[in-house]
């Protein structure tokens, strides 16, 4: 595993909290998924750039590692513990009204 992939794994694991701040409970599943994909791409690109591995295969691998880490962390930790849903509810536009 390269440094870029390791950083993508670490940041990807923590990204569901950031994604929960952006996502809104009333959004469609497609819109919520799009946010997750965009964040994973940004995490992968940033990790590869930060680690100095900004080449084709390394970038794609970092993006995929970030996506798998984010989905796994969300499904395995942040959703079952209630952290992600609470953050979404607290930061939703509807909660501010």
TrEMBL record:
Keyword Transmembrane attributed:
yes
Parts of the chain that traverse the membrane:
6-22, 34-53, 59-78
Q: Keyword annotations for this protein?
A: Membrane, Transmembrane, Transmembrane helix
From the Swiss-Prot or TrEMBL record, give the protein name: Holin
Q: Which organism is it from?
A: Streptomyces chrestomyceticus
